[in-house]
Amino acid sequence: DFGEESNLLAIDKEAFSGCNIQEISFPASLQTIGEGAFFSNYSLSKVEFEEGSNLTSIGAEAFSYTISLGSITFPEKLKTIGDHAFSVSALREVYIPDTVTALSDSALAVSGPTTAYIPASVVEIASQYEYVSYCSLTRDVALLTIVTTSGSYAEEYANKYGIKCVIVEEW
Q: What is the structure's pLDDT at 18?
């Protein structure tokens, strides 16, 4: 916990890499989480963002190998999720805000059954084949479900790669 009056703007590259943090609540002032900031934080099971969060960027591998992290809801101002930001994590539910327009290379390459809520604002998913092949340790696309709106790029992507897709009326 960074405290209610925190003015923290950034968490530097590898700042908490390999630490034994179990839960973290980021202050609304935080704008960027650096590359590998929480890499190999095996005990991290809960990540929260204070209401009114100003987070716009999550760096490459920022939460890679967070094998206890089961779900995350990103703040509404988030724009960028870096390469492999959550690779080999235990995420089972991922909610992408509609401020995100692209998912970087294997940004959400997780290791198990996962439901990714991807809005119509996402018009690019980088390195599609790699994303699919890394969606689980068994490389089985049957473990991934994409929830999106009809006609979205995420629906097209799911159909192209044989990923289960659930269509919702509105976001």
A: 95
Which is it for the CA torsion 146, 148, 150, 156, positive or negative?
A: negative
Q: Determine the 3-state secondary structure of 148 from DSSP.
A: strand
| Structure token pair of residue 15 | 């700042």
Q: How far apart are CA 109 and CA 39, in angstroms?
A: 14
User: With b meaning 16 or more CB within 10 Å and e meaning fewer, what string describes 15-51?
Assistant: bbbeeeeeebebbbbbebbbbbbbbbbbebbebebbe
- 3-class DSSP state for residue 4? coil
Q: How many CB atoms are located within 10 Å of the residue 142 CB?
A: 12
- Residues 6 or more apart from 21 whose CB is under 8 A from it? 38, 41, 43, 44
Nearest to 97 by CA among 112, 69, 116: 116
pTM, two decimal places: 0.86
Which is it for strands 93-95 and 114-117: parallel, antiparallel or unpaired? parallel
